[in-house]
Amino acid sequence: MTETTGATGRKGKGKRSGLKIERIFTTPGVHPYDEVEWERRDVVMTNWRDGSVNFEQRGVEFPASWSINATQIVASKYFRGAVGTPEREWSLKQLVDRVAGMYTETGKANGYFASDDDAEIFDHELKYALVQQLFSFNSPVWFNVGTASKQQVSACFILSVDDTMESILDWYKEEGIIFKGGSGAGVNLSRIRSSQELLSSGGTASGPVSFMRGADASAGTIKSGGATRRAAKMVVLDVDHPDIGEFVATKAREEHKIRALRDAGFDVDLGGSDIVSVQYQNANNSVRVSDTFMRAVEAGAEFGLTSRTSGEVIATVDAKELFHQMAKAAWECADPGLQYDDTINDWHTTPESGRISASNPCSEYVHLDNSSCNLASINLLKFLTPEDAFDVDKFVKLTELVITAMDISITFADFPTEKIGETTRAFRQLGIGYANLGALLMATGHAYDSDGGRAVAAAITSLMTGTAYRRSAEVAGVVGPYDGYAKNVDSHKRVMRKHAAANDDLRTIGAMDADIHAAATKEWQSCLRIGEKNGWRNAQASLLAPTGTIGFMMDCDTTGIEPDFSLVKFKKLVGGGSMQIVNQAIPRALKNLGYQQEQIEAIVEFISENGHVVDAPGLRPEHYEVFDCAMGKRYIKPMGHVEMMAAVQPFLSGAISKTVNVPEEATVEDFEHIYYEGWRLGLKALAVYRDNCKVGQPLSTGKTEDSEKTAGADTAEKRPEPEVIEVNRPVRRRLPKKRPSQTVSFTVGGAEGYITAGSYPDDGLGEVFMKLGKQGSTLAGVMDAFSIAISIALQYGVPLETYVEKFTNMRFEPAGMTDDPDIRMAQSVVDYIFRRLALDYLSYEERSALGVLSAEERRAQAAGEDPSQVAAQVESYAQSAAPANAEADQVTDGPANPAERASSTATRAVEEARTSTEILEAKQGFMADAPLCVTCGTKMRPSGSCYACEGCGSTSGCS
Known about the structure:
Strand content: 15-25%
């Protein structure tokens, strides 16, 4: 426990006890940087889509133990100063000095430390922990602290909106300011009167959903204006709001629009020119459900919707049907999620100051309106000893250090609005969390979806929060409790006792979690004892964030509370290049499970080749579950994720950022079950995502055809007998035995294939053969049949442009990035094939009418030049370069034998992968439902309720 000595407080508060900081990680007389091996590296980051250089800085200095990926992300995102100028940071030492220096100096100036020696120890311990990747602050700290910019340290914000136009316009403005800084905000719109209520002027109100349109458009505009990442926002509506039905259906209805637009040929892909016409796409939506509503769902009872102006029930709905509509909408488009209002407010430490009505965009920060929270995450794998025991003592000391630093940051922090600043300084909300839980469990031989795994996770979380609040109570004894504590003293103490009681109820399974739980019990006892005397410095202390970018900074295998994503990883190498590696937790897990070295090597080799453990030599089936991952051949079942969240939730001040992924074949009833169990198990928030639910697909024309047939039958008697006209049948124009052709290899979304196109000697496409999939497979057979049908039709005179018009923009998997510089994105293999054929065999005029242009033509068009001139130059060059006696079969790439091509596909796909997601897809033959990074073009991977890019560290909205 921290000792205290006399120190002078601030602002005339008199004598207070200062914190006596103990050395744990550092050595007296040795600077923490001197305990690290440093090396200089060159950072060059390219955009995979076009090969352009996104970022370049040579000669940066980092510890030799840091990966190239972590180096690139930190140098490109967190180093300050213009690249190429003397002011530009070039060493991790400079970055850590800039940030840690501000924390230490502020702590000294505000009476946190007992002496200058304690301040120096704090400084050294903090720098050691950051350089050694023991933990990391959230991104805004690295962006802003110690610079000339505003010292914003928070990534999470909650706003408020009242039922006035002035308040609504303030909401738009405040969100815009927060988005501009690269952070996200959440808001509950339930105070706005519904569209079923009257205005004071006598007209009908617009309702909250209508005002969501303006906020969504604002977020989309700011997103495209060059912020550090896309605007992230959360919109919440209470379940008893009269417009709840419209709110629930909002995004599902827009998803239908996206599909219709795509089928009509509009560009609604990521960054597409027509996607801006689709609304509500920049926010996560959540319904705030009450215990009363959920009990009505259980009973199949009616539920009342209340007026915002009078508080009276103005309509009733079938609770079970409304719950079904929520699940159905989420099944269709992943929104809305649910937030369990009574559970959230039952764990609220400051209810006398207001209810908790909303959350940040990822749902982990839940507290008062107009407040913010700064985050930090601990790298759990760093506390696994060589003997594979969890180092409880060092974990406790690091938690003390981090909580102290985080509280200091609120003292010097700037905030986007004065209201947020006032609330945050008054309640001092913190969000300590962790990453690498999944890797820790696997390394120690615990299955993620098991009682043992949940016991370890719960014990660690209880220890972290107990230590955090104990430290908060000690800091309160030095500089005083938070300003709102006196008003909420009884409620705060009640919640502390609830946490401690949950810890007492925790049942341990093995020796590891028993040791951690014993330490947690001591921490909660100290927390209650010291807090009873001093109060607490912080209204909130802990939560579990997605740890996207900072997870890469710490070289974490897994983010937040997530399990391992896959067993094979993508690793960048010093000096360029990359390689596939097997997760390093696997050998440790096998050793802990009792396997010998020769067995371990054989199993690891099998995993490297196959990406999973099923039928691995010598691996016992009962151990398969230890290696279950978020994706792959053996994936963790949805309730496994929910039960893990439920295990740790009682030990968190806030909530958990996590999306429960379910397979594409999941039903609406499955969603209902998951949402119901989330409430029953005591979660605070829950979101569910079904694979491919947001992927548009061609709509069936059967209904239209049936309707036309029915209409024809009804009017048949009224029509005159049609005149019989003889029509000449088309004549098939066969290709000669020897004809010019070309073979083009391609990759679409990681799937490889080949197009062989034969032409008539006097020009004109006459046949197409498409190869995709292994010879003899169903897919290969279907593509062969499709090729024959297209070829015969071409020979009967069907124009190629007819096929291009019909098949471009057809959407199905595999889809995504291609290796063709002229066609960077394809909606499907068929979409790619007919775009390529159009570029090779149609004139510029025919192609431009169909919207198919080459890369050079698009560049000319964007520059205001005439694309037809570019096309003419290319055609002239091609004619002059072509040999006069062109022979048949000009193969541009790939083996001549189709069987050889098929057998080399998987190997090449792995070699060309750029992220762990793409390696997993290549190994196991499925497409991961994840977006492409808008910064570098590589496929992202899930991170909490967001996505993170392994290539450049960008996230889809979370820190």
